[in-house]
Amino acid sequence: MNLEYERRVRALAMDWLDRMDPSHGRAFRREEFRGLAVDGEPIALMNEQGGIMKPRQLDAALSIRTTYTPPGKTPPYEDALGPEGLQRYMYRGTDPSAPPNRAVRRAQEAGLQMIWFLGVAPALYLPIYPVWVVGEEPRQLRFVLALEGQLLVPVGQELSGDQRDWVERVTRARLHQARFRAQVLHAYHYRCAMCRLAVPTLLDAAHILPDAHPRGLPVVPNGLSLCKIHHAAYDQNLVGVRPDLVVAVRPDIAAIRDGPMLEHGLKDLHGSPLTVPPERALAPDRERLAERWTEFLSTGS
Fold first, then answer.
1. Residue 194 has what pLDDT?
2. Mapped to the 3 state alphabet, what secondary structure does the chain carry?
3. Domain that includes residue 20, residue range
4. For 208-229, what is the mean pLDDT?
5. Which of 118, 150, 179 represents a domain boundary (last residue)?
């Protein structure tokens, strides 16, 4: 293995992805990942037929892929968490010595960074990087993955409550919440549902019901694409969304007289319709909105 070349290709690949999306929050179509070249040779970043990609120029796997599973469907491979809170990634097939699995193992042995393409919609992927393979569980036919910040986590050990909570917080922030944001923004066509701002770097995926709520799952029907101002206002219950998808401004906020941001950025929203995805499966869940609306009505004066 030419370790210097392996590292150089990975550095160039991740730099190329950085330039495509400096915010690390946008999902891309598969064909958009075909533009990288190193020394004049095209480098394939994603295996569109299988989950593990080893370009012909490399000895170790460069990327892994998890396909999109529609709501209510069972994923073909279940990538689970281990006892220490790290992600697992299933082998290609059931033979540990199959070439794709050997390529991942070589990346682990050399300590090489990889890219994880997460499916967020049909043929649409969010690149998560860097990730490392830090262990293997042959009996379960899977590898152990670490995200940035998790390299020192002891693989296979039951962690204390605080330690496990920290590992899972990293996983939520780097993986689950990143996927949630990409899915929500894509569903809303990269616009704020309240003010229609279409600058992706200024957009967030807001939860209707928070993470700690039993139904506060990171799924599109529990999300709203909001600009940072309206996300903060929604989280603080300065503005709310009625179950019939109409925006409301809290009465005490509406009574304040101030500059143009308050007058036009918040108060003018009162009574305006929320812009939502046309697909019913992606639209805000009315029951969740109703519960959050009840909370909104109980705040302010």
1. 96
2. CCHHHHHHHHHHHHHHHHHHCCCCCCCEEHHHHHCCEECCEECCCCCCCCCEECCCCCCCCCEEEECCCCCCCCCCCCCCECCCCCEEEECCCCCCCCHHHHHHHHHHHHCCCEEEEEEEECCEEEEEEEEEEEEEEHHHCEEEEEECCCCCCCCCCCCCHHHHHHHHHHHHHHHHHHHHHHHHHHHCCCCCCCCCCCCHHHEEEEECCCCCCCCCCCCHHHEEEEEHHHHHHHHCCCEEECCCCEEEECHHHHCCCCCHHHHHHHHHHCCCECCCCCCHHHCCCHHHHHHHHHHHHCCCC
3. 3-179
4. 91
5. 179
